[in-house]
Structures are given as C-alpha cells and as structure tokens.
Amino acid sequence: MELKNKKVTIIGAAKSGLAAAQLILELKGTPKISDKEPFEKLPKDVQSWITKNKISAEYSGHIQKFIEDSDLLVISPGVRRDALPVQWAKAKKIPVMGEVELAFRFCQRPVIAVTGSNGKTTVSTLIRDVIEKSGKKACLCGNVGNAFSNFVLRSQEYDYFVLEISSFQLETIVDFKPFIAVFLNFNQNHLDRHADLEEYFQAKKRIFLNQGKNDFAVLNAADPAVSLLKKEVKAQVRYFNDPKVPQKFNNPNFLAALEVAKILNIKEDVCADVFTHFKGVEHRIEMVRNIHGVDFINDSKSTTAEAALERISKPIIMICGGRDKHIDFTVLRDLVPKKVKKMFVIGESKEKIKASYQDLIKVEECATLQEAVTRAQQSASTGDCILLSPMCTSFDMFSNFEERGKVFKEIVNNLKEKALI
Fold this sequence. Notes:
Number of helices: 16
Number of domains: 3
Radius of gyration: 22 Å
Shape: globular
Strand content: 15-25%
Number of strands: 17
CATH class of the largest domain: Alpha Beta
Largest sheet: 6 strands, parallel
CATH topology of the largest domain: UDP-N-acetylmuramoyl-L-alanine:D-glutamate ligase
Structural class: alpha/beta
C-alpha cells in the first residue's frame, strides 16, 4: 500500500486516530484529522501533536468538502459505518478502513488476534506473556490501549503481534488476516451500537474472514455460538475449554492461551509458570485493597457482569451502572441472587438496573461513585467483597473505563479502616 503524497483523512482524534496520523506521516503521506469535538476538548497530547506537525484539521463536526478531499478515509472504532463522513467518502469511491486494517497493511510479522465478549484483555496479555517467557518477543496492542499503528513500522523488533480486537474494529477490516484468531465467548454487549445480537455476532466472526488453510481458528468448545463456527471457517480449528476433556487448568482464559501456545510449539510448563505468577490486568477483576476482611475489587473494564460474578466466591456487594448499552440486565436474574447480597447503582442506567433486580435483592441508588463506595463499605461485613463491575460504559460520568477504575481505586485507598458491622 503506497501512502506517499496521499491525503488520508482520519475521523476521530483519540488514541487510534493519532496513531494512524503518525503512521501516515512516517510513510510520507499527508494526514488530515476530522473530529466532532472542539479542539480544546481533545487530549493535550493530541492538541500538541497536531499543532507541532501543522496537521490540517477540522473540529466540532465534519464538513463534506474536507472529507471528499481525500485519497483514503480511516475511521476510529467509535465511528459508526453509517456515519455521514463514511457515506460521503463511499459516494466518491474513496476507500474506507479502520486503524487496525491500515496498520496491518504494513505488518511484517504474524498476528495473533483475540476477540470475544469477555476476557479479551486478559487472554491477550497471557498470550504475550507466554510468548515472551518462551524467549520470543511479542507486541501487545489493539483494543488493549496501545494502537497497532504505533508499533507496526518496528516489526523487526518482534516475533509476533498480539492484538485485542473489538467488534467495532472488525467491522472495518478488509484484508486483515491473523495467523491465529481466537474467539473466546459470545454474550449480549454493545447493543447501543449494533442493531441486534445477530449483527454483533456477525461483526465478531469477521476475525476469521480472510484466514486460509495455513491459519488457525481457536474456538471455545463450551460456547454454543462460538463452537459452531467450525462449519464456516477456512482455517484449521482448535478448541479450548472442552467440558468433555479433563483439563489441568480450570480457568478458560488460561486454556485459551494454552491452546495458542500449543500452536506455537511452546511447552506447557512455560505456560504453567506464567499462569502461576499472573496477577491479572488493571481494571479487570483487580484486587485493590482489603479492609477488615473485606476485599475491594476493581472490574471497571467489564461492561458485562458475568465474568466477575462467576469467578468471585465471596458474598458480593456490587456497584454497577453507567451509560446503558441497551443490554438486557435481566439475563442475570438467576445468578445475581446467588452471588450478590446488595447492589448500589449509579449513572444513567441506575433505574433500569434497579428495576431488573429490586424484587430479588436490595438495590439502592447513589448519585456518585464516591457515595456508592462509602455506602457499600458501611453495608459490608468481614468476608464480603465490594465489587465495581459496571455492566455499562463509562461515558456518562467518566471519559473512559480507565478513569472510572482509577477514581474507584483512589476512593478505596482513601477509605478509613473503620470497623465493619
């Protein structure tokens, strides 16, 4: 793909957009940026980079002439495929792709891609750690927070690229073809973006779209929707988490990473060592503090609650809520009364969540995360777990899940060690 002297317009100036712009500049192209936010609301590093490099840009919305004056349109994951700039570009036959697709065009190393409704960050991190423990070099990037475009021109420094891939990123792939594609699980999520579960599933399974017989598809044998994809994929299929097969490890995330390791001829004892010392990832079932026998767990990255509720054995006081993704909270009505003793709800979705569970457990509304943590501590007894697992996006109260998680940890670390009931 030749970008020299080409005008490439990027829709969205967040992390992936800035990374795409930097990549285009390094390849002697001319990046242009179009963002719906005013300049002053962009992250400071983005503002300074645009100014320093004298990038042509428009803010507070998109202008048709600006978009049409392009040889290529690159859209950030948060931009819908039916957005006006995309429609304008397609009408003028301007190619449209996402940041992951753009970076892949310049990748010179095998890609291992991981998708699923839950556990993507954990499994991607485990795969990276296993590869590095085996003596190879792996770059962890994608939806995990490090844009692919930031690293792809340094391919010679790595043996593999390990990418966490969201449904939003998969919607805009064209030629993206991972050597190993992992589909962890599937449940309702992102229904504020996708029309229904079927559209969401169709986006997810695009991870296998361009694979061939020399590639590998790693599927969750215990997930009915995922396991049946064997009939559709062209790659060699490997299963993990098969309930009919005795397993040395009882964690499905470990089993997924182990299956990838087998494909790469990495010994099981290397994996076992990584699993033993794995402390998890930030904002994903992350132990923050124990006060008088009460665990405080940060699961801010989770926008569905199943994973955390199933893995925690202690009685749970749950803090949840945020911007609703149009998911059906009642799917957890069987699990919640078994695991949760009390729930504190915040954000735009608090009334909907309360209505889903108030006949099963005690649910109380709070105005802020600070209030929810304080009241949760007041309600806790020794042996309980106070869990932030929002089931929603953060955008009503916070800029992203990282900020939400960091605020939660700050609140918890400032709590006084008061006696519990």
